[in-house]
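Support request, please re-run this one:
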Amino acid sequence: MKQLFVIRHAKSDWGDFSLKDFDRPLNKRGHHNAPEMVARFVAKGLKPDVMVSSPALRALTTAKYFATGWQLKAEQLSTNPSIYEADTKTLLQVINRFNDDFNSIALFGHNPGLTNLVNYLTDGQIANMPTCSAVVIEFPFDEWKLISSNTGNLVLFDYPKSGMD
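Re-run finished. Output below.
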């Protein structure tokens, strides 16, 4: 079985309009929500083998908060530039190329791609993944390349204002 964690970056700062979208940092709420969300995962015993993030600053910063909370080593976090501004097809290609040695992988990225991906992979019908929201999907496969439309089971959808903490 494969388990995919899909995590949208925490709330970003729009205060400096001279910054490129790629370089926007987290705002105060984002810096608060990311540790809070990973603590919820730790409390549930949910931890990936490795993490793959968009290299955009807000996504990578969020991923680093999660890596710290999960007590993962630096080499367990990698970036993939294809994730930034990716659509469902591109994100699926990233997932289908994951190393089968890992049974659980956390993917950090952006909307609308992540919401569309979750709805494509499951029958979750999520209208929007808010900032710092997290989804866990389980697949009945031993190979990531077998993941496709509606093959996953949505087992968790949580976000900072959900009241699930």
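The longest helix spans residues 28-43. The chain has a mean pLDDT of 95.
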